[in-house]
Amino acid sequence: MNQRPPYPNSPAQGAPTAPRPPMGAPSPAFRPAQGSPHNPSFRPPTPGAQNRPPLTPSAPNPNVVAHQQPRFAQGFHPNRPVQSPTFGNPSHRPALQSGDGRQNLAPVAGQHTTVRPGNVSSADAGGIVLPDASGNPSVAPVSPTMNQVPTTAEHHRRKRMYPDQITKAYMDEPAPSAPSYMAQQQQQQPPFSSPITNVQTQGYNQQQPGSASVQPGYDQGSALNTMTSQFGTMGINNAAPPMAQAVSLSGVRPDIAELKAHPQPIPLPPNTALTNSPYANCDPSYKCCTLNAIPSTDQLLKKSRLPFALVLAPYRTVKEDEQPVPVINDGVIARCRRCRTYINPYITFVEGGQRWKCNMCFLLNDVPSAFDYDAVAQRPADRWKRAELNYGCVEFVAPMEYMVRPPQAPAYVFVIDVSYPSIQSGMLATAARTIMDTLHRIPNNQNRTRVAFITVDSSLHFYSINQQLSEPQMLIVSDLDDVFLPQPENLLANLGDSMDAIKLLLEKLPSMFKSTSNVGNALGSALQAAFKMVSAYGGKIVCLQSTLPNAGPGALKLREDVKLLGTAKEATLLNAASPFYKSFAVDCSRSQVACDMLIFGGQYADVATLSCLPHYTGGQTYYYPGFNASRTEDALKFAHEFAELLAEEIGLEAVIRIRASRGLRMNAFYGNFFIRSTDLLALPNVPRNQSYCVEVVIEEDIKSPTACFQTALLHTTCHGERRIRVITLCLPVTTSISEMYASVNQQALIAYLANKGVERGISSKLDDARDLVLNKVVDILGIYKSHVLGSGPGSTPQLTAPSNLKLLPLLALGLIKHDALRQSSQIPTDMRSNAMNLLRTMPLQLLIPYIYSNLYSLHNMPPEVGEISENGVMLPPPLNLTVDNIEPHGCYLLENGQHILLWVGRGVVPQLCVDLFNVRSYDGLRTGKISMPVVDTPINRKVNLLIGKIREMRRGNYYPNLYLIKEDGDPYQRLWFMGHLIEDRTDNLMSYLQFLQHVKDRVSSGSF
Prior knowledge:
By secondary structure, this protein is an alpha+beta fold.
């Protein structure tokens, strides 16, 4: 046995990390644009200021508090300092612009004057009012290149002038423009190293003594370093940026470390944003575009054949180390009068700051009178510190005019299957126990949350939860065709007031049906009854289903035909079998009722039909094939995901509208919602971490240097507050196809192709879906070859792609080989339907590993891997998904966010089996779903930490199960593992190198 490098026992003591500055505090790392006219430290004396009455703006909304320290949305902790776009010198402020584009002077905060009409003084025309040696004001000459600051009196005089007077008051010479803002990249955290070097650990490689131990993997930081400056010098409409580096793909394994690289900053023209805030553009995890440089014409877009789409996750969770969403609670919401765009960092102030020009339709709008006023302190406020001018993602607390009724209180109706399969699988007992343990986590801050329970087999069972009764009362309704509520009250109980009665019901629920033999299920009737309970005020129906509905409305039949699997007719099985569920979902959407489906598939469950309910109501679908609560792993997965689902701080009665610059239009929408009008998406329920995709078309030529997209999510929080989350994205406009290709976001592009492929597979056939993905890759690389590289038609020795698209063929192959689209007769319809649901709802952070899994080697991990450090648990370097990286004596971990697979080669050394699994040899390993044993050995401790990190490091409620697979074990499990190695050839599916050759042949023979 060769000696391994030592494992660290304790984290290294690094240099202390400076805390982030609080909101509004100066930050030396942040520099504003030079030449800004504001300087709060300079206060010129104004005659009579002591006797002047204070200026009183119009009263703000009395229901809100103005200009308090901004609150933050979910994820904020008061004890954690918050990053803020502060200025190194508070006196510097960006210059304001006049209506004709010249820069003007911004108002000085904190000064009041009596508003009097009159002429403009000489100081306004060419000088600054300064005290002379005697202390009297005088006009000092200034350089024409120096910013000028008006007196307070003259500023307020301008404020009340008519437009023609304001025009005369403008300076003859414009102020110099501010220097360009270069987006700051996120700093990479250095790898952790330990100073302790005297610990020796046992290696598990089968090598001759003294031989060198080769560590597989890639340098995860090298990819980011090589791409740091890709767009850094790109100046749209100024100088032509350097073309993205052409990379040869043929015969080379992909560098998968770049899948985890940070997205490149978006290069905007100078002075596009009002301030130099690094948060002016929204974070890509909230919204990103397939193109980070937008074509100016539709002809250019069609010529490039690049998809133009947005990928959204507007209500994602915020982790501890992430910037929370600022909350604006002063009731001042400035919107464009014509296009209704919310004020954002990319508007322009004109006419001395009293009006602002919309960055979407360019209309001039008045600045609200309370925009610069602090109603609490009764004094002017600094507008440049307002969150909506510094952040691309903010939340407004909505005033009364944004409400058609008081904010909705959360209501949960649990529809639980109590037929024989539900009792036998243990679903009922596990669900009841999980609900009881999670009652205190259900959002109920205002004690308004209500809950109800309906159990269903061939009849409906309601439960009257009354505090005056010693225990809940069961009410049975057997009429399935004309459903009615057995009593008008006490079916929906207040969660806080009836906590004891609800717990008593959940404790007794499993024993009530333990001896049942009823195999009927009237799900449709139960859904109608639940809808009657909450339709008047909205809520959520949580449905737990173990049996195919076979009675009453919405009854389904066993329709899966294995002869159709893998054929062109398989698409019929992927569509809903009954129109009942879609029409019912549309009714729910109108009444602000959402549906979540948790489907337990001991046999065929028709996921394609039942998932219509969440699809059109903004809900979520969870599928548990072969569920059996007697297996601890099944019970843990369901209990974890169900508890997280109930504890989610969801949004209620929501609508989403996406606005764009003139000439752009939202054309097609993908995700879980109902399209109420041409561009209004209705979501009775807004889950956390759900993704949406929107296709964009160009209707008119874009003549401005930038284009903006603004997503407005109007919703009610689960705590009873009406809010508007506004997410703004600004992108440069280009006339160059080379710049377009250099700006493509390959991860957003693959998310768009996933949504298009799922839609095509359901509406047409799976062959068409796979062809859609393949043809798009051929088109993109073909246009790049002919129009960017300038190569002529015909064969070329290499297949070439821009550096930012070099992983596109790999991700496309992963999508074609995915369970949702793969050509196979071995994938059950329910599993394929569930995979399709996941592809079109997962945010990018979950989608990429779901398409291209992560493979790690465990038997030869570097010493620092799996240890707890100041940066968390370090993961091993990822390996390419090919059998070439699988050694016969190795142990590997493969995960995609839904499953964790442990592969053990048959040549593994017995000592590893002892140290990792606590068994004597390879033959003693038990395959299938397992719980990782806890052994007091270094490698076992590392692997348990790695599994724990994988289960919690991503957003979402998913809890991946752990499977142990032996090389010569169950053939189905072995094929399942090998199916994830997408770079190898499997059955009739091409390997990665064969796929590249196929694409190269298509590019060479095509006409582009």
